[in-house]
Fold:
Amino acid sequence: MEKLDRRIVTSITDVRDYDGVRAAVERGVAELGRLDVVVANAGMTTSGRAWEIPLEHWDATIAINLTGAYYTARAAIPILIEQGAGGAIVFTSSVAGLVGLPLLADYVAAKHGVTGLAKTLANELGQYRIRVNSVHPFGVNTELKPGLRELIDRDPGLGSLYTATLPDPVSEPEDIAAAVTWLASDEARHITGIQLPVDLGRTNR
Structure:
């Protein structure tokens, strides 16, 4: 970052800890001077048939994916409003926030919640020129791998719901980052409340 003449403020914070999230945001604003873009990206998932998901996995998935996204927005929104200069909030949802993908009930429920939260906030924050959108990846080449292959092999009828239009098996993190960057930029200044799929064509059928 020094080579680019840029500064960052980092924090290792559990997104389920609202006071910790708020403190991290406030410290960053205090050191850097302002807040313009908020990206809620933390996530986890497990896999299994809906009625067999361990309850602790359900609770963790909802808490990290949905409550953590809400806490992030809640900590940032008063600062954006007080600054009076607008801003952008981008939530990482998922194809699972648009489609009832099987074997991911906890993740699907959480990501549908994130999608709804983004749409509501877009309506509530429009008057402050704060735009709120969500991006919807399918598979991304990261360490977050739900381990669906064995479950789908046991029930091949579910596999068609995971088939892409484009030949690439998954997206790269840079593909999702590019979509987030565009939504946060002035090029998208008249775009709010949308759900942008970056999913290799899965939701276009």
